[in-house]
C-alpha cells in the first residue's frame, strides 16, 4: 500500500515536470530553441544523408572520427537518414540532456517551494519523480526528432517507412538509455547545489577534470582502475560502433543511473531544505 | 489525550552556534500551542526540524510516533514555512491542485479542495492567477490555504499573520480559532496578544533553550489583575493601593498596571472594587483581566 502511494507521488512529480516543459512559457521557449536547432540539423545534414553516405569525403571523415568496420555497417543501413541521425544524436542528446535537465530541484530548493512538496513526498520520491519527468521529456523530444527523420526518409522513398520504423525504435531505445546517466548525474548535482547554472559549471568541470584525474591515477599506478566507468558517456564511442552491445548499451548506463540516483537520494535525504 | 509530537533532548548546532539546547516537550492533541521567543531564539529551527526540513544534531523527535518528514506525517502534518514561495511559473490553482494530488486526492477532488481552502482564506477569485500577480499578503494567504488542504491533524504556522493587513490577520485568527477543535495548531508569532487569545499552551524559547512550557488557562495567577487604561492616570497607583486587598501596583508599561492582590482577605470582590474606583474617579479603562498578561508572565 505504501509502495503504491510512493509510485503515485513519483508519477505526480514526473507529470508536473512534463507540464513545466510543454505548457509553460519558459518551457515553450526551450522547446522552440530545440526545434530550431533540429530543424537546421534535419534540413542541412539529415536531408542530404543519402548523398552524404555515398560521398567518399564523408565516409573517409566518418572512418577517421569513429573508426572501425562497424562504421561501414552503419553507413550501409537501408535508411541513410537514420544512420546520420544516429551519429549526430548519440553525441548531441547527452549534451542537450545535461543543459536541459540542469534544474531538477535547484530553483525549488532556493525558492523554498521544495518545502511545500517535502511535506507531501519523501526526498527520494522527489528525486526519482523529477528524474523520471526529465527522462520522459527527453523521450518525447527524441521521438519527435526520430519521427521527423523517418518522415523525411519516407518522403524520399515511401518503401523505407516500415524498415525505417523498426530501426528507429531500436535507435530510440539506445539513445534514451544513453542519455539517462547524464540526467541522473544532474539529479545527483541537484541534490546539493542550489543553482542550475552552478550545476552546469560543475558538470563541465566534472567531464574535463575527472577523466584527467583518472588518467593520471592509472598512469601512476600502471593499472586499469575502471574508475572511468563512473563518467557518463564513457561507452558512447563503443555504442556508436555497436561494440559489446549488452555491456555498452545497457549494463554500463543503467548501472551509472542507479549509482548516481542512489548517492543523490542519500545526499538529498541529509540535506537541509 | 494523545501525544502528537514528542521532543526529547533536542540539540541543533549550526557550526559553532548552538541553535537548540536540550529541548524537551510534548504536544498533545487539542488547543493551539504558541511558540514564542526573540529573533534568533531557535523557533524557525524547531519548526524546520518538526517538518523534517533539517536534521537534529542530537536528541529524538517523533511526530505521530514517526520521524519528521516520513510517510506517516504526509497529509497529517501541514505547515506554513517562513519565506517559502510558490513556483512563479504556475497558476495558484495548478500548484495547489498538484499538492492535493501528492496528498492522494484525484484531480477532481483536489480541485474541490483548492477551491475550499482558498475560500477559507478569502481568495476564491485568484484561482488562475500566478503568484507574481499577487501582493505579499495574498501570497501568504495562499500558502496558508495550502496548509489547510485535506484534513491535517497538526498545522504549523510560522509568523502566519506577519505582513497581513489587520483585517486579514483577524480573519486568519478567526480561522485558526474556528478550526482548533479539529486541528492542533502550532503558532509562532511576535504578537503576544494574538497568541494569548488563541493558545492554551506556551513554549518559550530563548537562545535555543526552552525557558517556559506551560498552559495559559491552568496557570492563571489569581493573585494578580492587569488593568489597561485609556490614558496614564497619575493618581491611579495610590488609589488602587488604598484598597485593602491590594498588595502592590506596578505600572508595567504605558497605560497598563499590574495589580498584586491578596485574595484571602474578605470584602467585596476586588474586580468590582477596582471598576467602582475607576467609575468614581472618572478614569476610563479599556480592559481588566484576571492574572498577568502573557507578556508580563514571560518578561517579568
Strand order of the largest sheet of chain B: 5-6-7-3-8-9
Main sheet summary of chain A: none
CATH first level of the largest domain in chain B: Alpha Beta
Structural class of chain A: mainly alpha
Order of helices and strands of chain B: EEEHEEHHHEHEHEEEHEEHEH
Can you tell me the CATH topology of the largest domain in chain B? Rossmann fold
Number of strands of chain B: 13
Count of distinct structural domains of chain B = 2
Q: In oligomeric terms, what are we looking at? A: heterodimer
Helix count of chain B equals 9
- Give the overall shape of chain B, derived from the CA principal axes: globular
Q: State the largest interface.
A: A-B, 29 and 32 residues
Going by CATH, the architecture of the largest domain in chain B would be 3-Layer(aba) Sandwich
Return residue spans of chain A where pLDDT drops below 50 for at least 5 consecutive residues.
Answer: none
**Topology as H/E string of chain A?**
HHHHHHHHHHHHH
Radius of gyration of chain B: 22 Å
Distance between the termini of chain B: 32 Å
Query: From the alpha-carbon coordinates, what is the Rg of chain A to the nearest angstrom?
Result: 20 Å
* Main sheet: strands, sense, barrel of chain B: 6 strands, mixed
The percent range for strand residues of chain B is: 25-35%
Structure description:
The complex is a heterodimer of chains A (273) and B (300). By secondary structure, chain A is an all-alpha fold. Chain A has helices at 2-22, 25-44, 49-53, 56-66, 69-75, 80-100, 106-111, 113-118, 123-156, 161-190, 196-221, 236-240, 245-270. Chain A has one domain (2-270). In chain A, helix 6 (80-100) packs parallel to helix 10 (161-190), helix 9 (123-156) runs antiparallel to helix 10 (161-190) and helix 10 runs parallel beside helix 13 (245-270). The two termini of chain A are 27 Å apart. Chain B has 300 residues and is of the alpha/beta class. Chain B folds into 2 domains: 3-215, Rossmann fold (3-Layer(aba) Sandwich); 224-298, VP9 protein domain (Alpha-Beta Plaits), CATH 3.30.70. Chain B is built from 9 helices and 13 strands. In chain B, the strands form 3 sheets. A 6-stranded mixed sheet of chain B has the order 5-6-7-3-8-9, sandwiched between helices. In chain B, helix 2 (92-102) crosses helix 3 (107-120) and helix 3 (107-120) crosses helix 4 (136-147). The interface between A and B is medium-sized, with 29 and 32 residues.
Amino acid at each position: 500500500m505504501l509502495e503504491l502511494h510512493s509510485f503515485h507521488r513519483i508519477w505526480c512529480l514526473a507529470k508536473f515536470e512534463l507540464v513545466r516543459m510543454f505548457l509553460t512559457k519558459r518551457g515553450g521557449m526551450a522547446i522552440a530553441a530545440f526545434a530550431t536547432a533540429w530543424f537546421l540539423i534535419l534540413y542541412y545534414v539529415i536531408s542530404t544523408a543519402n548523398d552524404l553516405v555515398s560521398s567518399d569525403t564523408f565516409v573517409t571523415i566518418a572512418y577517421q572520427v569513429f573508426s572501425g568496420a562497424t562504421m561501414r555497417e552503419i553507413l550501409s543501413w537501408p535508411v541513410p537518414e537514420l544512420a546520420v541521425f544516429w551519429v549526430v544524436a548519440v553525441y548531441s542528446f547527452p549534451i542537450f540532456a545535461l543543459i536541459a535537465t540542469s534544474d531538477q530541484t535547484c530553483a525549488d530548493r532556493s525558492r523554498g517551494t521544495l518545502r511545500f512538496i517535502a511535506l507531501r513526498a519523501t526526498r527520494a520520491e522527489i528525486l526519482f519523480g523529477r528524474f523520471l519527468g526529465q527522462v520522459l521529456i527527453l523521450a518525447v523530444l527524441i521521438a519527435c526528432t526520430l519521427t521527423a527523420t523517418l518522415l523525411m526518409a519516407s518522403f524520399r522513398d515511401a518503401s523505407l517507412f516500415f524498415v525505417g520504423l523498426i530501426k528507429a525504435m531500436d535507435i530510440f531505445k539506445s539513445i534514451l538509455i544513453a542519455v539517462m546517466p547524464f540526467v541522473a548525474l544532474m539529479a545527483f548535482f541537484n541534490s546539493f547545489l542550489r543553482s542550475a547554472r552552478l550545476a552546469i559549471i560543475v558538470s563541465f568541470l566534472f567531464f574535463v577534470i575527472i577523466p584527467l584525474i583518472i588518467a593520471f591515477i592509472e598512469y601512476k599506478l600502471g593499472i586499469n582502475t575502471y574508475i572511468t566507468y563512473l563518467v557518463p558517456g564513457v561507452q558512447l564511442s563503443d555504442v556508436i560502433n555497436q561494440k559489446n552491445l549488452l555491456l555498452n548499451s545497457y549494463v554500463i548506463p543503467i548501472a551509472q543511473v542507479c549509482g548516481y540516483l542512489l548517492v543523490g537520494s542519500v545526499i538529498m535525504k541529509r540535506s537541509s531544505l | 489525550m494523545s501525544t502528537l509530537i514528542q521532543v526529547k533532548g533536542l540539540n541543533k548546532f549550526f557550526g559553532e552556534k548552538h541553535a537548540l539546547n536540550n529541548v524537551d516537550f510534548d504536544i498533545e492533541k487539542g488547543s493551539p500551542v504558541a511558540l514564542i521567543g526573540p529573533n534568533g531564539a531557535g523557533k524557525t529551527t524547531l519548526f524546520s526540524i518538526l517538518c523534517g526540513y533539517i536534521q537534529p544534531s542530537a536528541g529524538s523527535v517523533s511526530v505521530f510516533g514517526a520521524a519528521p518528514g516520513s510517510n506517516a506525517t504526509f497529509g497529517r502534518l501541514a505547515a506554513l514555512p517562513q519565506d517559502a514561495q510558490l513556483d512563479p511559473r504556475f497558476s495558484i490553482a495548478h500548484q495547489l491542485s498538484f499538492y492535493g494530488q501528492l496528498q492522494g486526492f484525484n484531480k477532481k477532488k483536489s480541485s474541490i479542495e483548492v477551491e475550499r481552502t482558498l475560500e477559507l482564506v478569502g481568495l476564491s477569485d485568484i484561482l488562475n492567477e500566478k503568484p507574481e500577480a499577487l501582493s505579499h499578503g495574498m501570497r501568504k494567504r495562499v500558502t496558508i490555504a495550502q496548509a489547510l488542504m485535506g484534513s491535517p491533524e497538526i498545522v504549523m504556522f510560522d509568523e502566519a499573520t506577519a505582513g497581513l493587513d489587520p483585517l486579514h490577520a483577524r480573519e486568519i485568527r478567526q480561522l485558526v480559532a474556528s478550526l482548533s477543535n479539529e486541528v492542533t495548531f502550532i503558532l509562532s508569532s511576535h504578537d503576544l496578544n494574538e497568541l494569548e487569545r488563541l493558545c492554551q499552551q506556551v513554549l518559550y524559547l530563548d537562545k535555543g533553550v526552552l525557558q517556559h512550557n506551560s498552559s495559559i488557562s491552568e496557570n492563571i495567577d489569581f493573585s494578580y489583575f492587569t488593568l489597561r487604561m485609556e490614558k496614564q492616570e497619575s493618581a491611579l497607583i495610590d488609589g488602587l493601593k488604598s484598597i485593602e486587598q491590594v498588595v502592590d501596583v506596578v505600572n508595567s508599561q504605558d497605560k497598563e498596571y499590574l495589580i498584586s492582590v491578596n485574595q484571602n482577605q474578605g470584602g467585596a470582590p476586588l474586580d468590582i472594587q477596582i471598576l467602582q474606583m475607576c467609575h468614581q474617579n472618572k478614569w476610563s479603562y479599556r480592559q481588566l483581566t484576571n492574572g498577568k498578561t502573557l507578556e508580563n508572565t514571560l518578561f517579568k
